[in-house]
Each structure stands twice: as structure tokens, then as C-alpha cells.
Write a structure and sequence with these properties.
This protein is α+β, with helices and mostly antiparallel strands. The protein contains eight helices and six strands, in the order ααααααβαβββαββ. The strands form two sheets. The chain has a four-stranded mixed beta sheet with strand order 2-1-3-4. The protein has a two-stranded antiparallel sheet with strand order 5-6. It is elongated and about 85 Å long.
Length: 190
């Protein structure tokens, strides 16, 4: 794991703990979204990345930009400015959302198909998956013509590959391993 990933995960865990203790999990999802988008602004980013600007001036800018966020969220941003870690906000937000989803037992499922799927197809997939998984399922879908047909499911860190491309690749590999013997001549082919 990369150092930035570890740092983002630590920040996310700390924010999650505070939010959980205060019963503010969804509020912090909104706060992190605001922090992330506000600090992506080109002008704000230029100020934060400039070595010529003093930390106290950067903190002043952060407080002005984030005037509508909670004091704790603003403090988090100021801490990350001081630690030169503003680039972690996207990862922090993703990690935090993953912690919230785990807390509520939600699983994200990406359905990949060769052609766009109809809503009823996605509903059927969700229904079938619900019978073998625990918790709420949140489906998203995308089209990938290169899989030729079938579907690929990504559930967390699991991959269920029912694509035609994979079946053809497996068939090709298996055919390369097969040794055929002719019953009439006893000769081996392969």
C-alpha cells in the first residue's frame, strides 16, 4: 500500500470515529464532499501549493473558502494544509464512504456488460445477488464491448467473470493442453 493510501485511510478512520461518536455519519459525507470540491478550485489549489505563501495565510484562505462547513471540518482542512496533505482529500472521501457503507452493511456492485442493460435486467441481477449476499446492494453498470457477451460483476474486492471473452480464452488455453489420440492409428495429436 502506498504511503498516501495509508495516510488517507488513517484520516478517514479518525473522521469516521468522530462522526460515529457524534451520530453524524451522513453529515460528514456531505462535509467531505464540500471540502474536496472546494479545495480543488484552481485558485485555492495555487495558493495551497505555493511555497511563497505562509501557512497562516493559507489557513486564512481555507477558513474563508470553507465558511459554511462545521468547525471540525474546517479544522481538518487546516490540519491537512499544515501537513501538506490536501492531495489526499479524494482518497480520504472514498475511504470514509467505504467505512460508512461497511457500517451500514452496504455493498457496491459494478455490473459490466457488452451492451447496455435494461432496468429490469439490473433488477434481476440485484435480486439474484441479494439471495446470496448480506446487506443492501448498490448497483452501478457500465458497458465494455470487449467482453463480447455475458457479464462481469465486481463486488467489493471480488470478481465474478461470466464474460464470453473469458470463456473463449479459457477454451483456447484448454484446447492447447489437450492431447488427442486417434483410436484407429494410436497416434497422438497435440
Amino acid at each position: 500500500m502506498v504511503k498516501n493510501d495509508v495516510s488517507a485511510k488513517r484520516y478517514a478512520q479518525a473522521v469516521f470515529q468522530i462522526a460515529h461518536e457524534r451520530d453524524e455519519l451522513s453529515k460528514w459525507q456531505c462535509e467531505l464532499k464540500v471540502l474536496s470540491s472546494s479545495l480543488k478550485d484552481d485558485q485555492v489549489r495555487a495558493v495551497m501549493e505555493s511555497p511563497k505563501i505562509k501557512l497562516s495565510d493559507k489557513v486564512t484562505v481555507v477558513k474563508k473558502v470553507l465558511h459554511d462547513t462545521s468547525p471540525l471540518a474546517t479544522n481538518l482542512a487546516c490540519l491537512m494544509v499544515a501537513k501538506n496533505s490536501l492531495g489526499l482529500f479524494d482518497s480520504l472521501e472514498d475511504e470514509y464512504n467505504a467505512l460508512v457503507d461497511a457500517h451500514y452493511g452496504r455493498q457496491h456492485v459494478e455490473v459490466i456488460a457488452a451492451v447496455p442493460l435494461k432496468t429490469k435486467d439490473l433488477d434481476n441481477i440485484k435480486l439474484r445477488l441479494a439471495s446470496i449476499t448480506d446487506g443492501e446492494l448498490i448497483l452501478s453498470s457500465r458497458v465494455a464491448p470487449e467482453i463480447i457477451g455475458g457479464i462481469v460483476l465486481k463486488i467489493g474486492d471480488k470478481l465474478i467473470d461470466g464474460s464470453v471473452r473469458t470463456r473463449l480464452r479459457d477454451l483456447k488455453r484448454n484446447l492447447g493442453e489437450v492431447t488427442l489420440t486417434s483410436p484407429a492409428t494410436g497416434w497422438s495429436l497435440g
